[in-house]
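ok here's Phosphoserine phosphatase, seq below lol
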Amino acid sequence: MSELVLINVSGRDKPGLTSEITGIMGQYDVRILDIGQAVIHDHLTWGILAEIPDQANASPVIRDLLFRLHSLDLQVRFAPITRDEYQQWAEGRNRACYIVTLLARDIRAEHIARVSAVTAQHGLNIDNISRLSARPSLDASENRIACVEFSVRGTPGDLESLRSDFLRIAGELNVDIAFQEDSIFRRNRRLVVFDMDSTLIEAEVIDELAAEAGVGEQVAAITERAMRGELDFSESFAERLALLKGLDEAVLERIAERLRLTEGAEYLIRSLKALGYRTAILSGGFSYFAHHLQNRLGIDYVHANELEIEGGQVTGRVAGTIVDGQRKAELLGELADREGLSPEQVIAVGDGANDLPMLSQAGLGVAFRAKPLVKESARHSISTLGLDAILYLIGYRERS
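and the structure came out like this:
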């Protein structure tokens, strides 16, 4: 009968080690049941679960490996595995797999401890931990983004309770934590749709228009209540828009030129385009400003409200159907169909209550720097970092 042996190797990394080790085992027709390797600061940790056939006793394999690895100044440990142990382990690998993404300006030991404690409390076992972001400079005063990804396996009893625990500790530690199933769609998403105001840009355009019209405080108060979900979006939108009646059309260009992109927006869009993603703005704001962003960033699609202008002045109305929360969700579905995608292959990003319908419909819905109601209702949120943190939720790995 064949023998199962777990082989662990550690020491300073050198080119060609995997070839050396497996070459020796290949001489004895060893079957590889599992293999893994990690290198941290040029230090190798390498493991392999081998099935040594009955016609080749394990001793010669172990002898040859010991001799060669010792000559390479590497440490090695052999552990016999019973067939029952292997079978139980292999069956456990069929349990659901999830990805926990920890995002912060800098990763601290406490962050890892708290995240791993929550996974353990909910019956999840950590299979693998990887740093996705570039290694930090010791001289930098602040890191742009630090990201560690945990691959975990198991069957949590209460997913909502698990997400709630992650949301709670994220707030306590001032970090972002995302939890998602490691499904076939995670690295196969191809369309990202964005809200515009307070998502791609740092301002609410209607508030900027109101300031120019001299009704800034009135409109800002209504905007704030609408984004918190306290007011119906369409009604509040019409109420705010009416206050802009008579505003000179020339103001629009001035506002468009001074709009500031949200942290990470330009890098995110550039990276998504390089990766072959399509992008869209689905906004309850105004198409004039959305098209300005489209030209600046290279966005593929724009759907927003058409600000009605007559005689060089804003009328206080929009032309056509208001793009509210429900319309955003409909547009997401229409764009997915147009691109030949399922909703699971779409990422949606927004900050307001009117974004919740499209966030819930997308395969990955991200509440970005959102109000508490939106943050709690969405499956994922980013509150402490820029928009480019979204790249790590799709498994992007930054090289350094």
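fwiw The first helix runs from residue 17 to 26. kinda neat tbh
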